[in-house]
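pls ignore typos typing on phone
glycinamide ribonucleotide + seq
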Amino acid sequence: MIRIGALVSGGGTNLQAILDAIDKGEIDGQVTAVVSSKEGAYALERAASRGIETAVMRKKDYDSPADYDKALADYFEARNIDLIVYAGFMLILGKDFTDRFENRMINIHPALIPSFCGKGYYGLHVHEAALKKGVKVTGATVHFVTAECDAGPIILQKAVEVKDGDTPETLQRRVMEQAEWVIYPEAVKLFAQNRLEVKDGIVRIKEK
Ligand code: GAR
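k done
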């Protein structure tokens, strides 16, 4: 059974999808620590209501970005976390964090990487950009986290149709329902089964 730590900043519906999959016995793991970059994030309530340890760690309370990265890494390391899931986490962490959890951090991004990703593309902004471009298909991507934003090895992707009349909000909801809440728990399951192999920046999913 793996120990999962989560980084959150907001509503935490992706965290919830993972917790639900654990409840259904689909993931051989447990979420044991949830850290939010913001006070009052609803994701904290979702975790606390299940008795999961939570903490708020705000970047502005640290002297430098490196200090913040180090504090977060120390926090998860002290709790023997096997996998860190970025679950709607809106900050970019640097090498002082990412080097310590290489191939043990995953992120969900609400587009088909390499489209609509990188700095500035987060949350609703991603869907605004997709609608502005007029793409007919978008989706979600789960990838390993590296120091370069949204550029780590891709684990799973799922496409979602863009419909006439979509707003950023309706598109976000469809991408969440049809893609994010499906592929994120699936990726955590594959990690827990030790079936993700990374070689030369490419992920291979091993047969059971
Ligand atoms: C989700 O759509 C997630 O993919 C996105 O923010 C939303 C968070 O929702 N994440 C990013 O844009 C990260 N760059 P949630 O808090 O309900 O899971």
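The pocket of glycinamide ribonucleotide is lined by residues 10-14, 43, 87-88, 108-110, 122-123, 126, 176, 180 (CB under 6 Å). The chain has a mean pLDDT of 97. more later
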